[in-house]
């Protein structure tokens, strides 16, 4: 995707909203919306937005895991599995 090809003014959006929404649903390429020549918003379809949110959530989990490793808050998998099995039996 070339971002430069996906830039539209707010007035263009107002005049062509239904067409732009259809294009988003078909091609799923986000569009940068400008106001007075300055980028102000990104318009994207719901499916892409949900994918982005899921990706961000996974990245947050990875970051948390890396932080815990760096802080030494880890234990061997065998110990963790034993603890899980013990809690399931209780």
Describe, in plain words, how this protein is organized in 3D.
With 90 residues, the protein is α+β, with helices and mostly antiparallel strands. The protein folds into 2 domains: 3-44, YefM-like fold (3-Layer(aba) Sandwich), CATH 3.40.1620; 48-89. The chain is 62% helix and 16% strand. It has helices at residues 10-27, 46-70, 77-89, and strands spanning 7-9, 31-35, 38-43. It has a 3-stranded mixed sheet with strand order 1-2-3, covered by helices on one side. Strand 1 (7-9), helix 1 and strand 2 (31-35) form a beta-alpha-beta unit. The longest helix has 25 residues, at 46-70. It is elongated and about 65 Å long. The model has no long low-confidence stretch (mean pLDDT 92).
Order of helices and strands: EHEEHH
CATH fold-type name of the largest domain: YefM-like fold
Return the CATH class of the largest domain: Alpha Beta
**Annotation field: number of helices:** 3
User: What spatial order of strands do you see in the largest sheet?
Assistant: 1-2-3
State the end-to-end distance: 54 Å
Based on the coordinates given, report the CATH architecture of the largest domain: 3-Layer(aba) Sandwich
Number of domains: 2
- Rg, please? 22 Å
What form results from the Cα inertia axes? elongated
Give the % helix: 55-70%
Instruction: Decide which structural class fits the backbone.
Output: alpha+beta
Outline the low-pLDDT stretches.
Answer: none
Record field, number of beta strands: 3
Q: Taking all residues together, what is the mean pLDDT?
A: 92
Largest sheet composition: 3 strands, mixed
Strand content: 15-25%
